[in-house]
Structure prediction request, 290 residues.
Amino acid sequence: MKVLILGSTGLLGQALVQEAIKRKCEVIGAARTRADLCFDVAEKQALEQQITSVNPDVVINTVAIVSLDFCETNPDRAYLINSRPSGIIARLGRQMGFQSIQISTDHYFTGDKDTQHSESSPVSLLNEYARTKYAAEALTLSYANSLVLRTNIVGFRGKTSEKTFVEWIVDNLANSTPMTLFDDFFTSSIDVCQFSRSCFDLIEKKTIGVLNLASREVVSKKRFIESLASQLGYEPQAYAIGSIRDMPGVWRAESIGLDVRKAENILGYRLPTQAQVTRNLVQQYKERIK
Prediction:
């Protein structure tokens, strides 16, 4: 199976490349730099040419601008990166017949705390990031052989200039840096390695449509950080309890837990609890520092 991974140098892209290699796939990574193919997905002609030349069996699109503030102030660029490529991929898919996988988001729900939202739950598009990602879903699903995966991914990327959420937590814990923990921001985060394994399991099963792929448990950011700290052997030295609504800038969805029962039924196994996710993260962290 020949797999083209768009955004192969990002947090998820790196993990997907490694999972593809483990499964003996022929994998081609694409990104702006440091990849097998180097181009900007916002460039329509380059995207079309590269997909056509690779002639893949599967295209996985992980590329996105995830900064809510940037998307809000640069909606044109957000559309060119987060939305338009999905339409181009869908059109090429209809012509070439490959399987299309679009990595989406969980930033669609607000106001109901730790509710687990199903794939059919009504969405609330509070900002440009959510709007461009939801548009990408619609464009992707215009091609029948497509799968949209809604998720909340956490893990280690190893790029010191751009720390991931987990890398930021670990750094703060190691340096006893004060943090504000939110007890009104709920997610069902999944570690990037488990997500990648399940993603390829779904690909092998030829799954299509919209699917939640996340932890099977919804917890607050406060509880998530406390669990990770405990398993790493740290005690948060100084932290305050805050509200996500007190954060300046873009209005954001905060009740973004996902119901993963549909995915579990297709996969034939249970997705991880939050405790299992943090244990996986600790194991990945220890492997990195060896």
User: Anything to note?
Assistant: Residues 75-96 form the longest helix (22 residues).
